[in-house]
Amino acid sequence: AQKITQTQPGMFVQEKEAVTLDCTYDTSDQSYGLFWYKQPSSGEMIFLIYQGSYDEQNATEGRYSLNFQKARKSANLVISASQLGDSAMYFCAMSVFNKFYFGSGTKLNVKP
Amino acid sequence: EAEVAQSPRYKITEKSQAVAFWCDPISGHATLYWYRQILGQGPELLVQFQDESVVDDSQLPKDRFSAERLKGVDSTLKIQPAELGDSAMYLCASSHSGQGDYGYTFGSGTRLTVV
Q1: Residues A46-76: pLDDT tens digits?
Q2: Min Cα separation A112/chain B (Å)
Q3: Using CA atoms, how far apart are residues B49 and A20, in angstroms rounded to an integer?
Q4: Residues of A in contact with B31 (CB under 8 A)
Q5: Structure letter (DSSP) for residue A98
């Protein structure tokens, strides 16, 4: 069975500091994709970053990086230099064979 | 930048009434998804289309929900009759191949409140 686990319901971070949001996944398939999405209070899901299961390098997109540890089945999101606009829900997701599985999300609050 | 269009943005309806949501995916995207997201939870897949065919509706409550994508382009999700527990965000997404990677794009969603 495919499963995504986010164990941090809520996180606080000081503006300009870095923060790590945890995500672990479970799948027996060798080919899969890992995603992070941001969902502000307005509700839209904004794509942040993608990591393929065969990618050897950790993905980076601007201030976002994905710490991919395949043996541990973890795909943590690192946000560097947090900004007030980063306050939102963050979802980790996995795609396997055209199906998409979401975690329960982490609510990030950035303090000024 | 190409977008997935959804309407309405917000909908308030009384229980036992019918309600419908519309989604127009990015042009050329063959795979279309409808998700339901209850407040405080992650989205759950309701139905997945490949062109005009349903490829997965295992989580769709078929006694009250229906979905169609008649010409393989835009799609409609209907609830009849609506129940209080249907209050949620309904998200539509599309992808070119259904294979994930950079291909999943979400619409802004329809926030449904059943009173």
Answers
A1: 989 999 999 889 999 999 999 999 999 999 9
A2: 24
A3: 35
A4: 98
A5: T
